[in-house]
Amino acid sequence: MKKLSTTLALAFAFIFSAFCSDPAYENAMKKQVNAMKTIRTLEESQAVTNAFLRIAEAKPEEWLPLYYAAYLQTTAAFRFDVSKDQYLDQAMALVEKAEKIAVDNSEITAMKGYVVMGKISIDPASRGQSMSPQAMQLFGKAINLDRENPRALMLMSQMEQGMARFFGSGPEKACGLARNALDLYAKEETKVGEDYILPTWGKGQAEQVAGACK
């Protein structure tokens, strides 16, 4: 009887899982995650951002499309000739919306810090003193939420590198964080397959920080 109950429970679990899965959502996310890898222009970036926003509208319970839209708005502010504050303000609004869906999520918290770091980079002299502690706090929280998140460590290493240059101090802390982040990226790569839609970005940025330590 116990064996039958276990079998029935597993069967119901399988049926529930199949019922809850959404191939249309997963396929749409895979398509745009792949499209992100080939972005070369602002127009392409905006097209993929808009696609993620449409997915977010269709699936309001999912945080990941909002996260990627925020990521693209943030990277656009770094990469292209745009109104940087405007793009970063839009990114922050998207991050805060994602935060309400997934509370205490390491990836979202790190992304929030990334947006703040972008705001600092526009005018480090006037914004650094007031905003740097906020960015560092967010990266620290993201690390504590998930010790296996390489992006949290990588972003912290970039922040430490920038602060070391600004204050004329040594790069040791930034270098150590970057090397630890690269170890986590190596671990992450063993889990990533064709259908993987969770964040994997940032390895190149960690390599840049680590490379400056040689």
Automatic annotation (TrEMBL):
<feature type="signal peptide">
    <location>
        <begin position="1"/>
        <end position="20"/>
    </location>
</feature>
<protein>
    <recommendedName>
        <fullName>Tetratricopeptide repeat-containing protein</fullName>
    </recommendedName>
</protein>
<keyword id="KW-0732">Signal</keyword>
<dbReference type="InterPro" id="IPR011990">
    <property type="entry name" value="TPR-like_helical_dom_sf"/>
</dbReference>
